[in-house]
Design goal:
Layout lengths: L4 E7 L4 H16 L4 E7 H4 L6 E5 L3 H6 L8 E5 L5 H14 L4
Parallel strand pairs: 1-2, 1-3, 3-4
Length: 102
C-alpha cells in the first residue's frame, strides 16, 4: 500500500455530478487498495485547495485553465463520462502510481 492521497471531485455546484464521480471512483480505489481522503466541491472552491488530484468533467477544462493551479502538486484528471469506472481507472491509476499511492 502506498501513501494516502487527497482526491477532490469537482463540478459546477459541488453536489451532483462530483458526488456521482466520487462514488464510481471509490470502487476503482478499492480495487487497487488505494488509501485516499475524498471530498467533492464546486469549481470555485477547488481553485483555492491543494489536493493531490482533482477529478472533474472534461467540460470544465477551460475554467480550470483560468485558475493558477500548481500542476506539479495537483494533477487534474478530466473525464468524458464522470461515472465510467473504466475511464476513471484508465486515467486515474497512472496518476496515482506517479504520486506513490500504488
Amino acid at each position: 500500500m502506498g501513501k494516502k492521497v487527497n482526491i477532490l471531485f469537482v463540478c459546477g455546484a459541488g453536489l451532483g455530478s462530483s458526488f456521482a464521480a466520487q462514488m464510481s471512483a471509490e470502487d476503482v480505489l478499492d480495487k487497487f487498495h488505494v488509501e485516499a481522503n475524498l471530498d467533492h466541491v464546486d469549481i470555485s472552491t477547488a481553485a483555492s485547495m491543494q489536493p493531490d488530484v482533482i477529478i472533474t468533467a472534461q467540460n470544465f477544462r477551460s475554467q480550470f485553465e483560468k485558475f493558477n493551479i500548481d500542476t506539479e502538486k495537483t494533477a487534474i484528471v478530466y473525464l468524458k463520462n464522470i461515472v465510467s469506472k473504466v475511464e476513471i481507472e484508465e486515467k486515474l491509476i497512472p496518476v496515482l502510481k506517479e504520486k506513490g499511492a500504488i
